[in-house]
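Homework-ish question, so no full write-ups if that breaks the rules, but can someone show me the predicted structure for this set?
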Amino acid sequence: MFPALDPLLHSELRLAVVSLLMSVDEADFTYIKEQTGATSGNLSVQIDKLTAAGYITVEKGFKGKMPRTTCRITPSGMEAFKGYVKALKKYIAVGK
Amino acid sequence: MFPALDPLLHSELRLAVVSLLMSVDEADFTYIKEQTGATSGNLSVQIDKLTAAGYITVEKGFKGKMPRTTCRITPSGMEAFKGYVKALKKYIAVGK
DNA sequence: AATATTTGGTTTATATTATAAACTTGTTTA
DNA sequence: TAAACAAGTTTATAATATAAACCAAATATT
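A: Not a homework solution, just the prediction itself:
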C-alpha cells in the first residue's frame, strides 16, 4: 500500500538537486546552490552522497582560472528519480 | 523554485499515516500499523509527533476489554497535507 | 606591494530524526 | 496458574541533515 521511498532521494536538498538535474543537461555547483538556496557545506555533502550512489557524476574543471564543479544526472539517477516519483504518488494520491 | 517541505510530513511513516487518515474517517492503531507495515514503537512515536503538531487527534478507549487507540486527521492536518503535496509537486514535476 | 575580500568549495561538529529494541500492562488461552 | 498474546510506551542507538568553521586561490583595495 505504501511502498518504501528511496532514502537517498527522500531528502529535501538531494531531491531538489536531482530534480534540477533532470531538467537540464548539466549544472555547476554555484548554479545549483543558487537555485536550491542551499548552503555550500550542505550542498557539498549531498552532492557527495548522490555521487557515491551513482545517481550523478561530478566533473571538476576550471572556468578561466576559477574552479568549477559540473554535475550531471546518470541514467541510474534518472531511473531512481522516476521510481521515487512513482512510489510517492501512492502517498499523495488521496482516496484512490 | 523549490519551496520548503514541512519536516513533519516529510517523513515516510508520518506521511503514510496522514495520507491514510485523509482517506478514512478514523483508523485505529492496529489498522494503521497493518496498513503501513510500521513497528509499534515507531508508529507510537510518530503518532505522538503528529498529535503534538495538531495534525491528528487521538482517542483512547476500549474495544471490549482491550485498549483501542483511534486516530483522526484534523482540519489543520488536512491543510498541512495539501500544502505539502502542493510544494512537493514543484520537485517532481520535471521540465515544467 | 601588501592586505583584504571574494569565490568556490571541503571538512568537521552538532543537533535532530527515524527506527528498533526492550519493556509494561492487562487479557486470553492451555 | 503459567505461558502466550495484544496493544501499546519508553528508551537507546544509529543515521541524517544541516550549519559552522575552515582552506586555497583569485581578485580587488589602499
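Now go work out the reasoning yourself. Hint: Helices of chain B lie at 12-23, 29-36, 40-52, 75-92.
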